[in-house]
Amino acid sequence: MLLFLPLLLSLLFPPLPTLSVNQEGLYLQHFKNSLDDPDSTLSSWNVHNDTPCSWFGVKCDATSNVVHSIDLSSKNLAGPFPIGLCRLPNLTFLSLYNNSINSTLPPSLYECQHLEHLDLAQNLLTGALPSTLPDLSNLKYLDLTGNNFSGEIPDTFGRFQKLEVLSLVFNLFDSTIPPFLGNISTLKMLNLSYNPFHPGRIPPELGNLTNLEVLWLTECNLFGEIPDSLGRLKKLTDLDLAINNLNGPIPASLSELTSVVQIELYNNSLTGELPPGMSNLTRLRLLDASMNQLSGQIPDELCRLQLESLNLYENNFGGSLPESIANSPNLYELRLFRNKLTGVLPQNLGKNSPLKWLDVSSNQFSGSIPPTLCEKGQTEEILMIHNYFSGEIPASLGECHSLTRVRLGHNRLNGEVPVGFWGLPHVYLMELVENELSGPIAKTIAGAANLSLLIIAKNNFTGSIPEEIGGVESLMEFSGADNGFSGPLPQSIVRLGQLGTLDLHNNELSGELPNGIQYWTKLNELNLANNQLSGKIPDGIGNLTVLNYLDFSGNRLSGRIPVGLQNMRLNVFNLSNNRLSGELPPLFAKEIYKNSFLENPGLCGDVEWLCDCRAKVKSQGYIWLLRCIFILAGLVFVVGVVWFYLKYKNFKKANRAIDKSKWTLMSFHKLGFSEYEILDCLDEDNVIGTGASGKVYKVVLTSGEVVAVKKLWRGKVKECENDDVEKGWVQDDGFEAEVDTLGRIRHKNIVKLWCCCTARDCKLLVYEYMPNGSLGDLLHSSKGGLLDWPTRYKIALDAAEGLSYLHHDCAPAIVHRDVKSNNILLDGDFGARVADFGVAKVVDATGKGPKSMSVIAGSCGYIAPEYAYTLRVNEKSDIYSFGVVILELVTGRLPVDPEFGEKDLVKWVCTTLDQKGVDHVIDPKLDSCYKEEVCKVLNIGLLCTSPLPINRPSMRRVVKLLQEVGTEKHPQTAKKEGKLSPYYYEDTSDHGSVA
Ligand SMILES: *[C@@H]1O[C@H](CO)[C@@H](O)[C@H](O)[C@H]1NC(C)=O
Ligand SMILES: *[C@@H]1O[C@H](CO)[C@@H](O)[C@H](O)[C@H]1NC(C)=O
């Protein structure tokens, strides 16, 4: 009976499932349980198996069935680093590449002794690198790319014994690159790119890494010279030192890198000539030394190499291009734009090599375009703008079906464009602007299936615009102004549903506007000024909801003004100089619209600058005229007396230094005041603020209206002493144009610029007055407590919406360049509006660099880290500054404060969060019941201040994130979204003007 007991027991209690798998399987189960596995990747990890060897991603030794490798890359797994896996006694390979592992690394990984390959790239790991990592004495491969590791590289790292690959790209390391890395003599690959390192030099010790094959130090904040010692790296195949501040010459020792295949030195400040001896680099395929200050000639020596790609753009190379470059058999990329190259291009360029990309724009090349460019049929881009090329476009290019991007603008090309050239099927940008090309647009254009931008203004094109243009469905911009196009616009043109810009001003177009223009639902700009168009303006025009720019001036249009036009929000609106008649729609009966309707003798309306429609009865005409004259004479007299009185009164104020007669006024709104009234009120008593570029006055006008007047003086003012950031103002012809654009901006979260007055040495900007002053003043004064959390949240959202408008809804986008709490103003209800936008852009020009953008703008504590060394201004730097404003709102602290020591607010928040927790970060004046919301907004602020620009969300996204906090409906999205592939950095857009 006893014999049956086990059987009975096993029937009653079937074996527990966990009992069948071995100990290794249990460790793996434990790992599985610690993870979030939304895609059920680990469903095959089944405890009924004896061993885990058949489980997904697990590999065992074939004889002993012991796990030696785990590969779970890109499986959407989330959770902490699985230190428990190190208990697998023979694990040598572990890859969790591209998941959401989100903890820190444990201080000791001693258990992982056997690991040879550890790939944790593209995860969410944080914290410092454990200094014990080199104790993994078998480790050969360590990839931590794309995490949020911070701090310094531990000094134990010189002790790795077998390490061959060390990749720390895209993290937050902020010390300098340590010399002891030169002790890891086994190293073959050292990748440290894209970290916010402190400024430092390339340690010469790296020259000791004689096994090194790849040295990748892009954007590591390096300065100083490239050490000679790098020439000792005889096995090096890739040398990438791009996007740093390296200076001095390229050392001659680099010509000893006999294995090197690619050298990237672009975007530094290197000077001198390309070193001699480059013909030793027989394996060199790619050389990119663009964006430096290199000079001299492009050496003939280079042409003896098997180069595939040669990029030397934005330097000071002179002389002509060596003829022999055309003999390079593999050359597919040649970019030499923005140099001082002269002479002709080798006329057989492209004959011997599969040339794909050619960019020689902005040089002084002359002569004709080599007819062989596309001989191998692979040419995709031909970019030659701003040179002196002459002659015809070679007929052979009309057959070059591989072309996608053609920019030949601003040359002296003449003759007719080859017929086939108009209809190339893959071309999306065709730019021929400003040449002397003639003839018509060929009907073959119907074949241009991808054409989105057709920019052929300022040539001598003639003939009518072919009906076939209606077949170019992708067309977004058609700019053909300043040509001799004649005849009517083809009816088919209304079929272009993608069209955003149609600019054909200054041509000889005639006939009526086509029917159905309401189908242009994406049309933003319509400029047909100065043609001979006749007939009516179609009523459908009122349906073009995104139209922003409308100019029909200087035509023969007749009939009434479509009432629908009143609904549109137009920045430019010009119907002057036509034959329009009838009554002016009532909304347009305002002074500001006067210039839009001038010179239309048949128009009438209830404004002084048009005749009164009722008075049009002819017989009464002259009585009316007489009456007008009397009234006018009376008015002149009264005005004269008043003027004399005022003049006399002012004359008495002899201390006024301003000569009013020299003022010119530019206004953007209908004004209820004059510039003189404002000038009279600029007393020192009325000063409400002093900024970097001038004083701000509060002016109460006689009408009771209040405005703020900013007075900009010429001259340099130091704003930010320690950082050597200068704000200055050099007389700039662009000022008026710029202010004009800004004046036309209408948005509820942007301070209105009423007008701008200019005199010889002083400019006045008149803004709407904001009674609660600036956010900065209020927040950092004793009244900071007035701002409770809901108000602060609203301010953040308002300001974000204003900035989002500047970035995304203005064309061209406006970069504020000086976002700070002092430039966010508060109205009577604490609604926030962004002020001073863009003006900074024209006001700041210290003339330090050749490009106006190479000027540091912005204020201490708000300047994005990349800005300090790249001098690149874009939306991302605004977003960083806005992030600082958010941190100010959350913490109630100043962006720079002696209390932080060396740090600024961003660093202070990060370290305090790490070391003491969130309660030490949040402004103690805020009610703790909002803590959850405050934390969410704090996170958005941290996101915006990510050291790497790509990790910062766009302003549009910021608005969205903030709104989500308000509605509390959606959980905070993961930080991962900011991570993009390295391809993000390959900016495919051209330098230069178009698109
Ligand atoms: C890590 O991810 C897990 C799973 O998504 C989540 O529950 C946990 O809160 C995260 N931990 C941290 C520190 O973000
Ligand atoms: C696994 O590791 C142990 C000790 O670390 C070693 O003795 C054994 O030979 C290894 N087994 C295999 C199959 O590699």
Q: How would you describe this structure to a colleague?
A:
The protein is an alpha/beta fold and 995 residues long. Among the domains are: 298-416, Leucine-rich repeat, LRR (right-handed beta-alpha superhelix) (Alpha-Beta Horseshoe), CATH 3.80.10; 664-769, Phosphorylase Kinase, domain 1 (2-Layer Sandwich), CATH 3.30.200.20; 774-990, Transferase(Phosphotransferase) domain 1 (Transferase(Phosphotransferase), domain 1), CATH 1.10.510. Helix content is 17%, strand content 20%. The chain has a 23-stranded mixed β-sheet. β51 and β52 form a beta hairpin. The longest helix has 32 residues, at 621-652. The radius of gyration is 35 Å and the shape is globular. The structure holds 2-acetamido-2-deoxy-beta-D-glucopyranose (NAG) (2 copies). One 2-acetamido-2-deoxy-beta-D-glucopyranose is lined by residues 36, 78-79, 102.
Short description:
The protein has 995 residues and is an alpha/beta fold.
The gross shape turns out to be globular
Which ligands, by name, code or SMILES, are bound?
2-acetamido-2-deoxy-beta-D-glucopyranose
- Structural class call reads alpha/beta
Determine the number of helices (DSSP H or I, runs of at least 4 residues). 15
Quick one: CATH class of the domain at 774-990? Mainly Alpha
Oligomer kind: single chain
Instruction: Give the mean pLDDT.
Output: 84
Largest sheet: 23 strands, mixed
Could you tell me the CATH topology label of the domain at 774-990. Answer: Transferase(Phosphotransferase), domain 1
Q: Whole-number radius of gyration?
A: 35 Å
Distance between the termini: 92 Å
Level of helix content?
10-25%
Give the DSSP E fraction (strand runs of 2 or more residues).
Answer: 15-25%
CATH superfamily of the domain at 774-990: Transferase(Phosphotransferase) domain 1
Low-pLDDT residue spans: 1-18, 654-658, 715-733, 842-856, 969-995
Q: Would you report the number of β strands?
A: 54
Biased composition (Basic and acidic residues): 969-979
Region (Disordered): 969-995
Main location: membrane
Family: Belongs to the protein kinase superfamily. Ser/Thr protein kinase family.
